[in-house]
Design brief:
Length: 281
Amino acid sequence: MEFRIADAFQQSLERLTGEDQRAAKTAAFDLQTNPATPGLQVHRIDRTKDKNFWSARVNRDIRLIFHRIESSLLLCYVDHHDDAYEWAYRRKLETHPVTGAAQLVEIRETVREIEIPHYVPKPVEAEASAPSAAPLEAQPHRPLASFQPAELLSYGVPKEWLADLLVATEDQLLELATGGRPAKPEVVPPDQGDPFQHPDAQRRFRTLSNTEELAKALDYPWERWVVFLHPAQRDWVEREFNGPTKVQGSAGTGKTVVALHRAAERLPLNAASPLPAHRCR
């Protein structure tokens, strides 16, 4: 059985107290070595959209949420009892129908209150003296309104999010509002290959082959980039250059991550020989 960890698990782990974090790590190791450990009190969660979500007892208040099928077990989330279950109720694990990448998708439900109009006759005098109608307020710009659903799906957008994205304002979608478009992920037919090995999925999931890899992931949850290195970043980390190199990119694109990984891979054991020169801007 494949054992995997999601970045959502590490993010939730960070928010726990130190004592609860230690207990959650112990439960994670127990799940990896023996999911049937009696103390975990493992059971399937009822009333979820995805019937493969399970719960494991960490302590009296903390619950670990994982996704289990016959071939794999995925650590998904950990939190206080009610919050952990609420997270599972609003999530499902699926393979994107276009890109073929595995995704943990938040189920978006909209509750609308129906207003019943009530007609009130207007006095004749009021009609005669009523001022001219005020101009309509300018509608906010919606950058994605002209996009076809199929095009948004090709970017890896979950189907449940299409309706919200089509009416999103430019304040919500700054990059697209200014004319930019993100690079589309590689497309792998959903019925071919492992959806967890898709480059887009590797940003969110990591397959762990042994307890040592799990320990590394759980000991440094704040350094998620160590575990979830994007394939595009890995390409720059492992690429060979003939001389000094300058890597450019806007803030938050991962330049420092690339530089740190290159330094870690190329640092000589005796630190006697110099490293290749690299510059990130």
